[in-house]
Please model this.
Amino acid sequence: MRNIFLILSLVGGMTLNAQTSIVIEVDDSSKSADTTEDVLVAVDESPEYPGGNEAMLKYLQQNLKYPKDGLDSAKSGTVYVEFVVLKTGEVSNVKVVRGIKDYPSFGAEAVRVISEMPKWKPGVMHDKPVNVKMVLPVRFSLN
Model:
């Protein structure tokens, strides 16, 4: 039986510019972003997943499902997902900024799971919670 590994790292305050990016957006109207306020990329304190990065890795490992078309073809790769952690801690505006060519199912799965994350500890700027744009690389790999 093949083991499925998920490798992730959190990149705060960084956006990606890729010429061949795939964008998949999710309708997260149930988590409405306060679009009248700025979204920052550099802050005094970055947002934090409850329990830290290890807890986030555990959440993703427990909730991500390897896409069937990826299993069938033994495809692996990294999906870069951008989202905003609102000043309330909610995850909003989730979209793929770089996916796996010819396999949009990987991006869709990463978006689904990140959209369902519990509230984060919000980012802070000048001692006030703020909206912060984050990028999360999610690596899908079969071993």
The CA atoms of residues 18 and 118 lie 29 Å apart. The beta strands are 4-8, 11-12, 39-40, 77-85, 91-98, 123-125, 128-142. The first strand starts at residue 4 and ends at 8.
